[in-house]
Request: fold
Amino acid sequence: MSDIDTTDVNATGDSPVLQPVGPLEVSEELRPRIDELGLWDAIEHFREHGYAVIRNVAPPELMDDLRAAIHSRAQFTEPTPGFAAPHLLGQEAAVDRVATLPKILAFAEFSVGKGMLGGRFVGSIKRHDEDNQASRALPLHADQSWIPAPFPDHNLLVTFCFACEGMTEAGGATCVVPGSHRLRRPITEEESASAKPVPIETEKGDVAVWDGSIWHGSLARTIPGTRTVLHATYQRFYTQAIDDFSYLLDDEEYMANAPEGIRDLLGGDLPFGTSTRTRDTDMVKFARAVEMSKL
Reply:
């Protein structure tokens, strides 16, 4: 649950307490966590280039558990089993754990604000298999392309790429066009044809992250083995989440055992949908949302 004090916020949303945080700024409330977690270098790179690598996010054994979960779930995915595992939040303990790691939650808050929602948690497996579309290069695109251009100054969506075995150019790494996030629009066909993207290479336990505006794709895998990744997206709480995980809030056993931070990612303390035919909107939650929108 959010720890914001809503005492001085009234039902119209007026707040004398907080000043809005500008695009790519860090709130005073968040700064101590950024200091403690050593995220400033990654934040500066993200600001300048639209992406970053966060080092030493997860222990190797957790990445092994995540890899096993993705491969297990991918066996049952239609229409092509063995290559993708969608809708993983709330289904695998390893996914819930990496989704709520301190460095991930802090960086996500910096990028898409306090109270962010979990948007999409999907695993993918890339093999050296030229006959399968899932193993080929992925064209350049921007993740928030369903938003009208120009994209807002405040980033709406951030993606974390957990590469379970690490990620290399020959292994089919994600590639980006550094600085393209400043254009705040999708890439054109002409630009895609002439672009010179650079690969993001990570060690096992590192996490690549990029914002919703940067042009990125992935390279074809040219070596044996697999590239197993979890793509985890987080969105500003006032946007429509790509996948709906709110049903988990009704699962008492799951919520009792879920990691700290899951409830917020599910929107459990947001005001949307709280009114009924006999009861008005939950104004405590509304007041909290007014505060969080500034952070």
